[in-house]
Amino acid sequence: MLHIKSFTFNPFQENTYLLYDESGQGAIIDPGCYEDSEKQELENFIKQNKITVKQILNTHCHIDHVLGNTWAKRTFGVPLLIHEKEIPVIKSVEVYAPNYGFHMYEGSEPDGFLVEGNEIKIGTETLEILFVPGHAPGHVVFYHQDSKQAIAGDTLFKGSIGRTDLPGGNHNQLISKIKSVLFRLPEDTIIYPGHGPQTTIGFEKINNPFVGQRAML
């Protein structure tokens, strides 16, 4: 059984996810923790639940999703995996982080790459890597088929989609990928977004004003 614990961190109100199975093997997805109190909250939960973190995964590498990458790598002694197309994105964070007030940001280097169609193991559980660019050039989504749950980053939100006006963004591409990749998942698939509350594929197919049926009216 896959367990998903969410935390909301940093001024962008980013959702960081901790995934773990019955054996206590786990992975951190998009560690957005920046303040010491945020890092302590995540670490305390991991210790209290006796979770062994095996890897850190980034859905994409915008600043709000990578603020805690280096801290997490150092604290848990595990590798960081990103999509190869996110290399320039993660490198650019070091340049503009001070402009957002993150003067203590530590840049992070990936230790490996996420490849579309490959799988990530969390203990005995398996996540499929889906490639859904548009918000960011190397954006991926992690889908757990057995429980029909997806960590979607900033692709699809409840009633919205990821912004596409940042460098590397492509509005038409994001719309196309949501429809051709995410909307092919079962309608009762739970979407855990990078910001805001969870939703389902079925709800967004009908109600999302950008990609749902209402967008066609």
From TrEMBL:
Record's keyword annotation contains Hydrolase: yes
Annotated keywords: Hydrolase, Metal-binding, Zinc
Cofactor: Zn(2+)
Gene Ontology molecular function, alphabetical: hydrolase activity; metal ion binding
Keyword Heme: no
Record-annotated Metallo-beta-lactamase domain positions: 13-195
SMART domains documented for this protein: Lactamase_B (SM00849)
Protein's name in the database: Glyoxylase, beta-lactamase superfamily II
